[in-house]
Design brief:
Layout lengths: L1 H8 L5 H11 L5 H9 L4 H40 L16 H15 L3 E2 L5 E3 H4 L19 E3 L6 E3 L4 H10 L4 E10 L11 E11 L4 H16 L5 E8 L2 E10 L16 E10 L1 H6 L8 E8 H9 L12 H4 L7
The structure holds phenylalanine (PHE).
The site of phenylalanine (PHE) has 11 residues, from strand 9 and strand 10.
Length: about 350
């Protein structure tokens, strides 16, 4: 009687419940079988009454099992039917987005391509000659300390290091060919600096080089002015401040009117209205000669800018570390390109 009740109330919620039911009642060591074993031992009058009850009980258990099994089989096939229901709307494919530095590098390269600059690249592991000596950094000159270098192997004069700037690509390019040169050289550079919101041990630069007969500082100014108008919009102002680099003479740093406050003064430009974006100058004749180019016949200009800096200004990013942390919340905010 107790079992009859249990069976009647059996309401399986999963296929596992149904299997548990089967194991309890219907297998050869299950309850139904054991009751029939007991039945053999009772007197023949009792058998007459109990026989009927037992048969009904067995039937009930089997029916209940069939019913439960059918129910679950049906629901799985319903699920299967749903899976191949061609009228259901599709699941959209999620597209990744471009890294902001890639977007900005591409934009910079596109602007210069229209001016006739070709793209050129060089190795990230450099020797002393290409990173320093050919660029007019004398052997023990303090100018080498301008950039904290990661040395891989230090040997007198033949040091191998991670390049500290893309200016090394200028040298490779000039050594390999003949003027005129008009090239843009994007790449990753390394400096031994503590990582913070404002400095990192690696970052990206775009170098520019233009060497031909009669290239003047006016060409440099006009090229960079045009670049800034294209990248940050018409009306962006530029100013040049005298500076020093061993490989350019004269040298300058270029500032642009702050892209956030348009020169009115804000946190980014610290109230000055100006932000520095690149270093530039006329290629030092010594550098031309080091690369086998006649400095009496040819002159040129060069510039180098940090892509992170340019990107920060464009997207108002305040922490350099975001660029290399791969946080999807940051990266997914940038545009997708197919
Ligand atoms: N190489 C310089 C730097 O890393 C930038 C620069 C490039 C300056 C070309 C002048 C000319 O800071």
């Amino acid at each position: 009687k107790q079992y009859t009740e249990e069976i009647e109330q059996f309401a399986p919620t999963s296929i596992a419940d149904v299997e548990a039911f089967r194991l309890k009642f219907l297998v050869s060591k299950g309850i139904v079988k054991s009751l029939f074993e007991e039945f053999k031992t009772v007197s023949s009058e009792e058998k007459r009454v109990l026989g009927k009850v037992l048969n009904e009980f067995k039937q009930l258990a089997e029916d209940k099992f069939q019913e439960a099994q059918a129910e679950f089989q049906q629901s799985t096939s319903a699920l299967e039917r749903k899976e191949s229901d061609l009228t259901l709307p599709g699941e959209g494919m999620e597209l990744g987005s471009r890294h902001p530095l890639s977007l900005v590098r591409k934009e910079i390269v596109e602007i210069f391509k229209k001016l006739g600059f070709v793209v050129s690249e060089g190795p990230e592991i450099e020797d002393d000659w290409h990173n320093f000596s050919a660029l007019n950094f004398p052997p023990e000159h303090p100018a080498r300390d301008m950039q904290d270098t990661f040395f891989i192997k230090k040997q007198d004069g033949n040091d191998i290091a991670l390049r500290t700037h893309t200016s090394s690509v200028q040298v490779r390019m000039m050594e390999m060919g003949k003027p005129p040169f008009r090239a843009i050289m994007p790449g990753r550079v390394y400096r031994n600096e503590a990582i913070s919101a404002r400095a990192h041990c690696f970052f990206h630069q775009v170098e520019g080089l233009y060497v031909d007969e009669n290239v003047s500082f006016a060409d440099l100014k006009q090229t960079l002015f045009h670049f800034v108008q294209e990248l940050y919009g018409e009306g962006t102002k530029v100013r040049f401040r005298p500076s020093y680099f061993p490989f350019t003479e004269p040298s300058a740093e270029m500032d642009i009117s702050c892209t956030i406050c348009k020169g009115a003064g804000c946190n980014l430009c610290k109230g000055s209205g100006w932000v520095e974006i690149l270093g530039c100058g006329m290629v030092d004749p010594n550098v031309l000669e080091n690369c086998g180019i006649d400095s009496k016949k040819y002159s040129g200009f060069a510039f180098g800018m940090g892509i992170e800096r340019v990107t920060n200004l464009k997207y108002e990013i305040k922490d350099l570390r975001l660029f290399s942390e791969n946080d999807a919340r940051f990266l997914s905010q940038f545009e997708t390109e197919i």
